[in-house]
Write a structure and sequence with these properties.
Elements: E1 6-12, E2 16-22, E3 28-35, E4 47-48, H1 50-68, E5 75-82, E6 87-91, E7 101-102, H2 110-118, H3 122-129, H4 138-148, E8 152-155, E9 158-160, H5 162-167, E10 171-175, H6 176-185, E11 189-191, H7 192-195, E12 201-202, E13 207-208, H8 210-215, E14 225-227, E15 236-237, E16 249-255, H9 256-263, E17 272-276, E18 280-287, E19 298-303, E20 311-318, H10 322-330, H11 339-345, E21 354-356, E22 374-376, H12 384-410, E23 416-420, H13 427-437, E24 440-444, H14 449-462, H15 468-474, E25 477-481, H16 490-503
Helix pairs in contact: 9-14, 10-12, 11-12, 12-13
Length: 512
C-alpha cells in the first residue's frame, strides 16, 4: 500500500461536524471541526438545519485537507459516521429539506408514543426492531414531519401537501448518513446500523417492514436503499466536478455508536465499549445473534461487512452525560469542562446530593420520556463543588444502571470496559467510573474512535486495510484505571436509584 494515501472520515455529530484523515496505522493526520446551531422551537423540541450541516461538512473536509497539506486524490475512500435517529425529509427533485431535521433528543412525539403504548403495540415493535417504542427513533419523527411541515409552493398558482408529495414518490427521508451520502454521491443509501435505529426496519429480515411503514404512514418510496456498513460495491463517488474536485469512493457508514464500537475493535462476541459524548452509549457485541433484552436495553445491529452476516449488539442509550457538564457551564457553575475534575476532587463526597440529568427524559434502562432533570439532597451547606461532583457521579451511576442490565441480559460479566469520547480525558471521571461499576476502565490512545471506526469500515471496503487483525494491531492503550474503592459506592448507588425515581414522570400536563 502506498504510504502517501489515506482514508477520510466525516463524523457528523449532535453539536458539530468533524473531518479526520487516518493513515495505515490508524493515526490522525488531519482534523477539522465546526459547530452548528442547536434550534429549540419549544421546550423538549430540538432541531438542526440540514443545509447548515451540509455546508459545514464541505467546509471541514476542505479545511482539514488544506491545513494538513493533503490533496483529495490522496484519499483512498471516505467513511461517514453520524448522530443516529436524527431525521430529515427532503425534496427528491431539488434536494432541499422540507423541514428542519428533528434531532434524536427531540421529544415532540411523546404523545404519539403513548398512543402506541396504550394500543398494546410496544412488544410488536420490539420484536421486529429490537427497540423500545420511544420518541428517540425516526419513525414518529418522519410521521410528524409529513403531518406538520408547511405545504411546498410548487409555482405561483399552487401549493402541494407534503403527504401527497410523499405518496407520489417526490420526497426522500433519511438519517444524517443518508443525507450526506445523497449530497456527496447523488445516491439514496443508508447502512444497516443506521436503518436499525429508525423503528421502521426489521432487524431479523434485514428489510424495511411493511407493517411498520403502514403504522407510521411512511411511504416505502421515501426510504433509502440499505447496504452493508463496509461496502465493497461502494455507495458511490464524490463528484469530480464538485467541491472536492475528485471522484473519491464513499464506501462505509456506521451510526456513531456502532462506529465507536468498530473503532475500538470490538469485533468479537462479548467485546464492550462505552462512549461518553452528549449522551453515553454502552454497546456489547453479541455476534450473529440478536439477543432480546429483558432489562430495558436495545437490540440493535452492530455492523455488517460485504458478504458477511450481520453482527448484532446490545445497547444502553443514556441521553444526557456530557451534556450535563455543558449545562454546568451554561448556568455558570463552572468556567469550562476541564475544571470539573479539580472541583470534584476538592470535596470528599457530594454531601448527600444527587443530580439526575434527565433533561430530555430517561433512556436505558428506564425509558421515561416524561422524566426531567432533578437535584435532591441539597442543604444550606451545599456548594457548587458538591453539585459538580454529583454531576460527574451521575454519569458513572447511569453507566452502572446499563452495565448491570447488560450483564443480566447477556450472561457475560464485564471485566474490562473500553471507553472513548470527550469526557474520558477526565482522569477523575475514569477512576470514578471504575470504582462505581467495579470494572477496569481502558482508555485507548486514539479517543476519536467514532471517526476511526467509519474510516476502518470504508478502508476495509476499498482494500486499504485487508484484515481485522491489522486494525486490532493499531489499537493501543493510553491508560488503564483499576478499581480502587469497590465498596464505597454500593450504598450510594442504592440512593441514586431513589433519586432516579423522583425524576420520573415529571413533565405531565400539570408539571411542564
Amino acid at each position: 500500500m502506498p504510504t502517501d494515501t489515506y482514508v477520510g472520515a466525516i463524523d457528523q455529530g449532535t453539536t458539530g461536524t468533524r473531518f479526520m484523515v487516518f493513515d495505515h496505522s490508524g493515526q490522525v493526520v488531519a482534523n477539522a471541526y465546526q459547530k452548528h446551531e442547536q434550534i429549540y422551537p419549544e421546550p423538549g423540541w430540538v432541531e438542526h438545519d440540514p443545509m447548515e450541516i451540509w455546508e459545514n461538512t464541505k467546509d471541514v473536509v476542505t479545511t482539514g485537507l488544506t491545513e494538513a497539506g493533503l490533496e483529495p486524490s490522496q484519499l483512498e475512500a471516505l467513511g461517514i459516521t453520524n448522530q443516529r435517529e436524527t431525521t430529515i425529509v427532503w425534496d427528491a427533485q431539488t434536494g432541499k429539506p422540507v423541514h428542519n431535521a428533528l434531532v434524536w433528543q427531540d421529544r415532540r412525539t411523546t404523545d404519539r408514543v403513548e398512543e402506541i403504548q396504550e394500543a398494546g403495540k410496544v412488544e410488536w415493535i420490539r420484536e421486529k426492531t429490537g427497540l423500545e417504542c420511544d420518541a428517540y427513533f425516526s419513525a414518529t419523527k418522519t410521521e410528524w414531519i409529513l403531518d406538520n411541515a408547511d405545504p411546498i409552493k410548487m409555482d405561483r398558482s399552487r401549493t402541494e401537501d407534503i403527504r401527497d408529495r410523499a405518496e407520489n414518490g417526490e420526497l426522500m427521508m433519511g438519517t444524517i448518513d443518508a443525507w450526506l451520502i445523497y449530497n456527496l454521491t447523488g445516491n439514496h443509501i443508508t447502512d444497516v446500523s443506521n436503518a436499525s435505529r429508525t423503528m421502521l426496519f426489521n432487524i431479523h429480515d434485514l428489510a424495511w417492514d411493511a407493517e411498520l411503514l403502514e403504522e407510521f404512514d411512511v411511504p416505502a418510496s421515501m426510504l433509502p436503499e440499505v447496504r452493508p456498513s463496509s461496502d465493497e460495491d461502494y455507495y458511490g463517488y464524490t463528484d469530480a466536478d464538485g467541491f472536492l474536485g475528485e471522484a473519491v469512493p464513499v464506501a462505509g457508514a456506521l451510526g456513531d455508536q456502532q462506529a465507536a464500537m468498530f473503532g475500538q475493535t470490538c469485533f468479537d462476541e462479548g467485546d464492550a465499549k462505552n462512549t461518553y459524548g452528549t449522551g453515553s452509549f454502552y454497546l456489547m457485541n453479541t455476534g450473529n445473534e440478536a439477543v432480546e433484552s429483558d432489562h430495558g436495553l436495545l437490540t440493535t445491529i452492530g455492523f455488517q461487512r460485504s458478504g458477511e452476516p450481520v453482527q448484532y449488539a446490545l445497547e444502553g442509550a443514556i441521553f444526557i452525560t456530557g451534556a450535563a457538564i455543558e449545562w454546568l457551564e451554561d448556568v455558570d457553575l463552572i468556567d469550562n469542562a476541564a475544571a470539573t475534575a479539580e472541583m470534584a476532587r476538592s470535596v470528599d463526597s457530594t454531601d448527600g446530593v444527587y443530580l439526575v440529568p434527565a433533561f430530555t427524559g430517561l433512556g436505558a434502562p428506564h425509558w421515561d420520556g416524561r422524566a426531567r432533570g432533578t437535584i435532591v439532597g441539597m442543604t444550606r451547606g451545599t456548594r457548587r463543588e458538591h453539585i459538580v461532583r454529583a454531576t460527574l457521579e451521575s454519569i458513572a451511576y447511569q453507566t452502572r444502571d446499563v452495565a448491570e442490565a447488560m450483564e443480566a441480559d447477556s450472561g457475560v460479566e464485564t471485566t474490562s470496559l473500553r471507553v472513548d469520547g470527550g469526557a474520558v480525558k477526565n482522569n477523575f471521571l475514569c477512576q470514578l467510573q471504575s470504582d462505581i461499576i467495579g470494572t477496569e476502565i481502558v482508555r485507548p490512545e486514539v479517543d476519536e474512535t467514532t471517526a476511526l471506526g467509519s474510516a476502518y469500515a470504508a478502508g476495509l471496503a476499498v482494500g486499504y486495510w485487508e484484515t481485522l487483525d491489522e486494525l486490532r494491531d493499531n489499537w493501543q492503550v493510553d491508560r488503564e484505571f483499576a478499581v480502587e474503592n469497590p465498596d464505597g459506592y454500593d450504598e450510594k448507588y442504592e440512593r441514586w436509584a431513589e433519586a432516579v425515581e423522583r425524576s420520573k414522570n415529571w413533565a405531565t400536563d400539570g408539571g411542564d
